[in-house]
Amino acid sequence: MKKSHTYREAGVDIEKAEKSLANVRKNIARTHNSHVLKDIGAFGGFYELPSGKYKKPVLISSTDGVGTKLKVAMMMNRHDTVGQDLVNHCINDIAVCGAQPLFFLDYYGCGILEIGVFEQIVDGLTTACQQAGLPLIGGETAEMPDVYAPGDYDLVGTIVGIVEKDNIIDGQTIQQGDILIGVASTGLHTNGFSLARKVLFSSWKPGDYVAEIGNTLGDELLRIHRNYLPVITEITSAFPVKGMAHITGGGLYKNTIRVVPQGLKPAFNWSAWPVPPIFTFIREQGDVPVEDMRQTFNMGIGLVFILDDKYSGEVLKLAEKFEDNFYSIGTIVPA
Length: 335
Fold this sequence. Notes:
Blueprint: H1 14-29, E1 57-65, H2 69-76, H3 82-95, E2 100-110, H4 115-132, E3 136-143, E4 153-164, E5 179-184, H5 193-200, E6 209-210, E7 215-216, H6 217-221, H7 229-238, E8 243-246, H8 251-256, E9 264-268, H9 277-286, H10 290-296, E10 301-307, H11 312-321, E11 326-334
Parallel strand pairs: 2-3
Antiparallel strand pairs: 1-4, 2-4, 5-10, 5-11, 6-7, 8-10, 9-11
């Protein structure tokens, strides 16, 4: 007689997935606004576009993940920050194009669905969404024991935003002599963790206090990726910003050059801002070449504005309003 098999025996527990979703449904609903027409659970997310506000609306979308920062969260057994990282990263990616976020969707894949971990992650997602006024209108939770090892998971987000066609910021008007204004990051954000983990966890544990950085290693690495939307909205409302760069994988140069027209390039004054101690610590512990550091990490600058030099003084003064750190970090020069 053939042995009977069930989906649960194969490693997929649909009832547990349904229970986990029921536990977080209220938190997700708190992110919704009047434009959301359906609660989660439908085959798709329903969002009514604002009427009359845009003459030529353009939708701008982005999909991204948190990378191996997730491994640090797993080591710390602390999963409430990576959801915030994901939302904020995605917001920044479309905000630098001039877009205002409309809605967000997430994908959570794991080997074994652990309800406590899942709830922490969704708590992080909804916290960041609420802070940004961004509805979480749908997603996918996938339990795949043959794809993910026990305890492992992946987290991916998709965001959609909107901008008036004439207000798209794409760098086309950038010219020689324009100034680069950098805005401070909160740390590594969500990039460079494969190198950071290789260097640091060969000698240190996540809970170890490191005097050079004034923090435990795990807490320092899990600092939340900053949401730059409030700063971007303020600056672009007051000044004719020509281009913006969200500094992610590839570092300052490779991200800024993405918005600079052919024939030009950004030239950075690398001594124009204080590099946070965590980057110095990684470089010294791993004997990492300076050029590798600059091509891997944000080095303390998470956002770059590009605009006419005549506005630089006024923009830098706004740092006081935000209790923030803005720096004049370079110029646009011939390639």
